[in-house]
Give the backbone structure.
Amino acid sequence: MAQSFSVTSFKSNFQLGGARPTLFQVTLTSPTIVGVNLAKTPFLIRAANLPASNLGTIPVPYYGRVLKMAGDRTFDPWTVTVINDEDFQIRDALESWSNAINQMRGNIRTGTGKLNDYKASAQVVQYNKEGAVIRTYDFEGLFPKDVQPIDLNWGSQDAIEEFQVTFEYDNWVLDSSSSTGSYAGAQGS
């Protein structure tokens, strides 16, 4: 049976007007391995995304049919776009962080060599149109996988430098104090 089109039905199910992709903030914490200053990240991370996660599949064959069982969860790398200020503060912090994990010369790690010394955390907060927090994602065990190049070009007038950083991390969790739904607060440790 075909469903009839009804603007009234649509409007009644879209009462809040939709979440806006521009109403977000990203905060990176500094790792203990090196004293890096990431204080400007809430202001100069121009683009990010709400993270993805994937459940693997375990195929179990049985008499010519395959039963699909849920497998382990994996987390995709996370990429942000950073606006580069002339003080290069964030770029310097990220390059220093990466170099402390594995030095450009010498192939060694700075500090004690403990796993958690070079890992940090990050947070993505999504706001509603009134400025209230509607969703918060906390990244755990985060480190920069790569710091992308900054393109220089005499023809790039009226532009500000930007670069991307891709992070690997152990997992993300949804902060249940800022989220709605049955999933919020139902997470294991």
User: Anything to note?
Assistant: The beta strands are 24-28, 45-47, 54-62, 65-74, 78-83, 120-127, 133-147, 162-168, 171-174. The helical segments are 7-12, 41-44, 89-101, 115-118. Residues 182-189 have pLDDT under 50 and may be disordered. Residues 89-101 form the longest helix (13 residues).
